[in-house]
Amino acid sequence: MEKITQSNAGGNPTGGVHIGSPLRVIVLAGRDAREADPLARAFGMSHRCLVPLAGRPLVAHVLQIAALHPAVESLAISVEREAFDGLFDVLSQLPGRGIVKLVEARPNIVDSVMAAAEGWDGPLLITTADHALLTPASIDAMIAALDADAYRPADVAFAMAPRSAVHAVNPDRALRFHEFSDDAYASCNIYVVSGPEALRAAEVFRGGGRFAGNAWRVLRAFGIVNLVMLRLRAVSLVEAMARVSARLGLRVVPVVLQDGSQAIDVDDERSHAVVEALLRERTSTAPLPASGQALTVGRI
User: Fold this and answer.
1) Fewest beta carbons within 10 Å, which of 154, 174, 186, 233?
2) pTM of the model as a whole
3) Which CATH number among 3.10.105.10, 3.90.550.10, 3.90.1170.20, 3.30.300.30 corresponds to the domain 4-286?
4) Average pLDDT over residues 61-87
5) Closest CA relative to residue 92, chosen from 57, 127, 124
């Protein structure tokens, strides 16, 4: 199994999708009802996605990148119903094209994704509302992983960034990395699936929203032998995903992004400051174009 790598420039039951197939982007913006969000509380907000960042609500940054991407035809935002009005105000200020759905978040992350995917038969890209540094190039790289014209298109792909690339933009040594025999990688919280059939891979998250924090979910996904090999760092990232693919019956492919900023989410006040500085630097050199179109927003 090969690794798909994006430079700084830029078993298959579903058969892949063709480049140019319309894409729905699902943005997970809900909160954990079991605990308060310190960042949201610090800014006096009910939800982290509404926290101000570089002059706009946090979620506006990821939504604008998605809404302006030519492959994105549909957006679905998963969030608690009490945040609908705040999100509606954000969306009314954004340029873009296509249709946006506000979908009530479910207690379980899998059910939230399934609800946001309902009624869509094509490929899906899933990310989080705190991924303010999302770029069009990253979306392009994820779509390319599903390309039906490729030798072996992915059913599921997920983005990772190598440690050196992440430290190049954020030297914070507290960042978490997943160690493999070839390198250490940080998750970028960007996932694509080729269609509804491939969504069954999300079942490894059922029972909670934090996959790595539940050993039984890890065991169910990887199996005990594979888990031991991962713990011993005896396999590379690509080899590990080949094993996961065999267990799930789906082709799961890592997309390695050389833009380390893609692994930085806004989780706390420290990362908020880091991301805000990176955003201001980015927009000063390459401001986003206006689309001249408005989004159509619906509520479910």
Assistant:
1) 174
2) 0.85
3) 3.90.550.10
4) 95
5) 57
